[in-house]
User: Fold 2-hydroxy-3-oxopropionate reductase from Streptomyces polyasparticus.
Amino acid sequence: MSNLPKIAWIGLGIMGSPMAENLIKAGYSVTGYTLEQDKLDRLAANGGTAAGSIAEAVKDADVVITMVPASPQVEAIAYGPEGILENAKSGALIVDMSSITPQTSVDLAKNAKEKGLRVLDAPVSGGEAGAIEAVLSIMVGGEQADFDEALPVLEALGKTIVLCGPHGSGQTVKAANQLIVAVNIQACAEAVVFLEKSGVDLKAALDVLNGGLAGSTVLTRKKDNFLNRDFKPGFRIDLHHKDMGIVTDAARNVGASLPVGAVVAQLVASLRAQGDGGLDHSALLRAVERLSGSQV
Assistant:
């Protein structure tokens, strides 16, 4: 019998499925629940256990990990008679890896404590590739003792794992991450259109740019998306739209001005309004092309 903690995993989407599978590879027993039957079948095929409900998934778990799209989904799986808080065993550790508002994380931690449960907010950066390769950056909010307990589990999922402060801090840092990523993608997209309209060899240009100060993880990860106009979602515009709403609202609450971020938030929103919400966030290139007179 393994001495490793039993894991419940709620939410097996683009990120959640490969992350859960990496825990299985690391020797953990993982019981999962999600709304899509094919994702449950995938988990079972990779050595996990598919549960029929949240309650069934979490009842024996030492650690409950959640990875769902936004605050409403976190609240839906956490609360109510069929939710995590009512069905997890006393003393269990909930690690919410969704990207949600800091206040939602603070409220979840408070309500869980009343049920004898502990919570960490632990959103991630690195996209689908980072999830598959188990090299995610994980920004954590919560108590030091709970972080120390969760660290071996998180080390099976990522490479850069940092406790950023009390509950909600992980989400605040993730909001800043999404601000930087969106602005970076927008700058790359503008550069791509500028280079192409100037008749430059785009692949050669991006290679040399990525070797200098203009280089970034964003450009490394998204270069082929730009070159091939391949916008299969690794991280959807819909989700980045949600995240830009989080960061702009949080910044307003603390009195921080985000002039460039506000513009990029509007560009993300416009792309979504034009029907591109299901595409990868590198599809910001499409918005720049439209503004530049190209037929997209």
The chain has a mean pLDDT of 97.
